[in-house]
Amino acid sequence: MKRHVMLLAVLGILGFGGAGCGPGEEPRETPSGETTEQVPGEETSSEENNVEQFARNCKTTCSGITASGGTCGVVGFGSTTFLGGCKKACRFARQDADAKAASYGCQLTQCSDACG
């Protein structure tokens, strides 16, 4: 009986000691020439798609009069890249239209915005 107890004790110790042997769950080391990182051009993260969903474009179409009394039309464009919204994009479009009108010698009288 003593032999069986000693044998079970030795096997138990070896069993617990051997539990740590074998393939582990640690990450494998990559050779120095290989990398697992993506090249910046290959990145297609969902984060970029989310940013694009918040981007807005606006087109402002304005009409006005020139100093000689003629009519003129000006189109301005504006956009936001992140969380700007339509209001901000259209504000940029209006600034673009104002700058173009000034260079054409046009006094704007009416503008309409189209945001997308």
TrEMBL record:
Q: Disordered: where is this region?
A: 17-51
- Which keywords does the record carry? Signal
User: Which interval of the chain is the signal sequence?
Assistant: 1-21
UniProt name for this protein: Lipoprotein
Q: Does the keyword Signal apply?
A: yes
Q: Give the domain of life.
A: Bacteria
